Automatic annotation (TrEMBL):
UniProt GO MF annotations: 23S rRNA pseudouridine(955/2504/2580) synthase activity; RNA binding
Protein name: Pseudouridine synthase
Organism: Leucothrix mucor
Superkingdom to which the source organism belongs: Bacteria
Residues annotated as catalytic: 154
Length: 333
C-alpha cells in the first residue's frame, strides 16, 4: 500500500472518497486527531495520516491541526478526498496471528481487554509494517465499535498490553497512567551481578538529537523513575524485576545501561559483543524484557484489575540455561 496520494485512473481497483465533514461526538471528545482519522478512514497507514495532517489537508473548524490536537464535542473535521486500495487487496494480518492473539487474551470485560503481546509485533502499524497489534485485533474483533490502545509497548518487548473498549475507559486509563495509578512490572535479564539489592533510580531522559527513537540519561530531560529488584543471580547475569513509576520511552533499557547493567539482547543500548556471546550460549534472539504484571482500579466503575503472567517461553528457556551454571540466588522478596 502506498502512502502517496494517487490520481484516479480508469479500471484502477480502488475506492474513491470525496470530501467529508464529520462532527465530533461525545464518544470522541478529547481524542487525538490522528487516532480519530485512523478510525474514520479504514485501511490507511499511519504515515499517510501524518502526511495529510502535515500538508494541512485535514482541517478542524477550518483550521490546520497537528497530530496531537485533541478534539472537542461539536467541532467539524474536514477529511480530504483520497484514493484507497480496494479492501480486497489491502494487506491483512494472517490468520495464524489472529488465532495467536485470540489465545493470548488474558482478561476481557465490558470496558477493557488485557492481552499478552508477542515479541516482534509492534503495537500499531507503520513504515514497513502494514499492521500491528491494534490493527490485527480490530480485524479479529471486527464487530467491536471501539477498541484502542491504552498505552504502548516496544516491538521487541513481550507481555501485557491494555486495550480500551470504550472512550470512557480509554480516558480513565490515560488519567491513571499520568497520575501513577497503574502499577506496571517487568522482568529483564541484565549482564553483571546486581549487588545493590532493592534500588530506586531517578534521572532525566532526553531524545538524542536527530534520533527520535533513541534516548539517553541527560540533565534537562523528562523525569524517569523506576524501582529495581534482583530476583535471581547467575554466574554473569541477574534476573531483575522492575516497577515503573513513570513511563518514558526505553526507560528501563536506558537506565540499566547507564548503571552498567545492560539488558541482554538489547541492540540499541546493550553490549554488542556480549549479545553475540550470549546468543551463542543460550539461543537468545531478542530483547530480554517482559511486561509480566499490572495492577490498577478504574475509578468510575470501581473494578480492580490485577494480572500476572509467567515469562515468555523463549525467555524462560534462557533462564533455565543460566540456572544450570548458577553461582547463587537471591531470596524472593
Amino acid at each position: 500500500m502506498t502512502d502517496k496520494l494517487q490520481p484516479s485512473k480508469p479500471n484502477q481497483s480502488s475506492t474513491k472518497q470525496s470530501v467529508r465533514f464529520v462532527t465530533v461526538t461525545e464518544a470522541h471528545d478529547g481524542q487525538r486527531i490522528d487516532n480519530f482519522l485512523m478510525r474514520e478512514v479504514k485501511d490507511i497507514p499511519r504515515s499517510f495520516v501524518y502526511r495529510i495532517l502535515r500538508k494541512g489537508e485535514v482541517r478542524v473548524d477550518k483550521k490546520r491541526a497537528k497530530p496531537n490536537r485533541k478534539l472537542k464535542v461539536g467541532e467539524s473535521v474536514r477529511i480530504p478526498p483520497m484514493i484507497l486500495p480496494d479492501k480486497k487487496q489491502s494487506k491483512k494480518a494472517p490468520q495464524q496471528l489472529l488465532d495467536q492473539l485470540e489465545q493470548s487474551i488474558l482478561l476481557e470485560d465490558k470496558d477493557l481487554i488485557l492481552i499478552n503481546k508477542p515479541a516482534g509485533l509492534a503495537v500499531h502499524g507503520g513504515t514497513g509494517s502494514p499492521y500491528g497489534l491494534i490493527e490485527a485485533f480490530r480485524q479479529l474483533r471486527s464487530t467491536l465499535p471501539f477498541v484502542e490502545l491504552a498505552h504502548r509497548l516496544d516491538k521487541d518487548t513481550s507481555g501485557i498490553v491494555i486495550l480500551a473498549k470504550n472512550r470512557k475507559a480509554l480516558l480513565s486509563l490515560h488519567d491513571l497512567f499520568k497520575s501513577g495509578g497503574i502499577d506496571k512490572y517487568y522482568q529483564t535479564l541484565v549482564h553483571g551481578q546486581w549487588e545493590a539489592g532493592r534500588q530506586y533510580v531517578r534521572n532525566t531522559l532526553v531524545c538524542e538529537r536527530g534520533r527520535k527513537q533513541k534516548v539517553q540519561v541527560q540533565e534537562g530531560g523528562k523525569v524517569a523513575e523506576s524501582i529495581f529488584y534482583p530476583r535471581q543471580k547467575f554466574a554473569k547475569t541477574t534476573l531483575m524485576e522492575v516497577k515503573l513509576l513513570t513511563g518514558r520511552m526505553h526507560q528501563i533499557r536506558t537506565q540499566l545501561a547507564a548503571l552498567d547493567f545492560p539488558v541482554l539482547g538489547d541492540t540499541q543500548y546493550g553490549d554488542f559483543a556480549l549479545n553475540r556471546e550470549f546468543k551463542k550460549s543460550t539461543g537468545l534472539k531478542r530483547l530480554f524484557l517482559h511486561a509480566f504484571k499490572v495492577e490498577f482500579k478504574l475509578p468510575y466503575s470501581g473494578t480492580t484489575y490485577k494480572k500476572e503472567i509467567p515469562l515468555a517461553e523463549d525467555l524462560q528457556q534462557v533462564v533455565n540455561i543460566e540456572s544450570r551454571r548458577d553461582t547463587g540466588r537471591v531470596k524472593k522478596r
